[in-house]
Amino acid sequence: MKPINIGGHSAYQNRVLTQLRKYYPNAVNSLSDSSWQILEKFRSLDLSEVDTLMQDRYSVFGPEPRLPSDMLRALLVSVEFKITSYTRFAADLKENPLHAIISGFTVGSAPGVGTFYDFHKRLWMSDHKNLSNALHPPKEKPLKPKGKEQKASPVEKVTVGDLFRRFEESPPSGMAPCARLWDIFHTFFLQASVDQNLISLKELAPAGDGTPVYTAAQERKTRTCDCWKNGIHDCKCDRICHQPDCGIGWDPHRNRFYFGYDLYMLTASDSEKDLPVFPFLGPASRHDSHGFLYNWFSMKQMLPQAVVKKLLLDSAHDAMPFYDYCRTHDITPFIDLNWKCGRPPVYKDDITIGRDGVPLCPKGFPMKQAAVEPKKGRIKYRCPKITSKGGAPHCACDTPCSDAKYGRNVHLVLKDNPRLFNDPPRGSAEWKLEYNARTSAERCNKREKIDYKLEDGRYRSSMMWYCRLFSIMMCQHLDAWTLPKTSPLKDLFGQAA
């Protein structure tokens, strides 16, 4: 039968208070401050509308189901207490009354393991637990980079420009099974952070970064041919892959190959708590420049109201199609330069361009920014050695390169090379201040992987990984919301005692 939540959120709050009085009569003194904080956090989280949102995922026949709001709250409680195994969590709910009370269950009547897996299937809008077919040829392994802490070259036989053109016509569909997970996250968590002015979707400045997610020690696959028996050990015949959406990638931080996903996360760089906005799990072999495109065009489909004004990315995204796209869509790019992509040896006459995009005078000194002329689409730089010592301004070089009063001037025309010539220009204090916020993506990934133990899940399907990932993202937003300094629940409990 369909889930019916009689009493809504207030019924959950009364249930929590009643059971606390019964099983923890001395809770004011026996429970720690952190426990009261967690109790207050979930007590203030109204998930009653989830029961209405999930109505279509239940049949009109059969026994009365667990309330989706309680099941979702239980998933968040497992994330809060760093329990990654649902077998262990189901046992914990029976052994630890406090966890059952916070989740909204009656003590002694908590759900079993199968109920949790059944709820994951209801959150997943697909009949298949993975996004790709399990039967396919052996996955290609990226080449090991020559230097340390360098990212491997892309494995995909497609350029960034080709992907831009393809996705503008036909966006990727990899996030379609996550539609219900996204609806819950967007409605009850992302929008709540917007309402509290923690994020602004009208002037969003996302920072993007990819991070390895280890899912297994090695690839699990089964041969479908007899090549091994015939002495052919490196055949290209199809295999049955038990984690078909994963791949073999290179971890530049640990300097090793790994099997799993590449998690590309877009975060709100201007939020104080490094809040996540949109995730995408791709194979480990996918380069960050491609991972961004899968994430970006999926986000544009599922979050069309977001207006992006700035884009903060690292040097893995330093390709001309990114700058052309940003200029076309009125987005200011803050992308670090990757000198493997090259730079013009000479810009005008004997003026060269430095590693930060600032022109160098014939003597090799970085020139000083004089003015920005947005209407003309150019930035003016002047001689770096001009001084007024001794009276009139003059160049302090032994052999001045210009007879002009204020020395040599050069204008960088932005349309000549939008990759090198930015507004604000690289090297300026404004550009550095904005770009420093890009590390919010790295901090967000760290919280998910280290603080919330994302990789400890060891699941076999994308369904389980996405459910866990979205639960973690919900907890990140929940942690950022302002709570009262003293717990109203604790005060209420003390008054009743």
Please provide a written account of the structure:
- This protein is 36% helix and 15% strand.
- The mean pLDDT is 89.
- It has helices at 8-23, 27-30, 33-43, 48-53, 68-80, 86-95, 97-103, 113-123, 160-169, 179-195, 288-302, 320-328, 429-435, 439-451, 462-480, 488-496; strands at residues 135-136, 206-216, 221-223, 239-241, 247-251, 256-268, 276-283, 310-313, 332-335, 352-353, 359-360, 368-373, 378-382, 386-387, 394-395, 409-413.
- α1 (8-23) runs antiparallel to α7 (97-103), α5 packs across α7 and α5 packs across α15.
- A hairpin with a 4-residue loop joins β12 (368-373) and β13 (378-382).
- The chain has 497 residues and is α+β, with helices and mostly antiparallel strands.
Features:
alpha+beta; single chain; 497 residues; four-stranded antiparallel sheet
Secondary-structure blueprint of this entry?
Layout: H1 8-23, H2 27-30, H3 33-43, H4 48-53, H5 68-80, H6 86-95, H7 97-103, H8 113-123, E1 135-136, H9 160-169, H10 179-195, E2 206-216, E3 221-223, E4 239-241, E5 247-251, E6 256-268, E7 276-283, H11 288-302, E8 310-313, H12 320-328, E9 332-335, E10 352-353, E11 359-360, E12 368-373, E13 378-382, E14 386-387, E15 394-395, E16 409-413, H13 429-435, H14 439-451, H15 462-480, H16 488-496
Parallel strand pairs: 8-9
Antiparallel strand pairs: 1-4, 2-6, 3-4, 5-6, 6-7, 10-11, 12-13, 13-16, 14-15
Helix pairs in contact: 1-7, 5-7, 5-15, 6-7, 9-11, 10-15
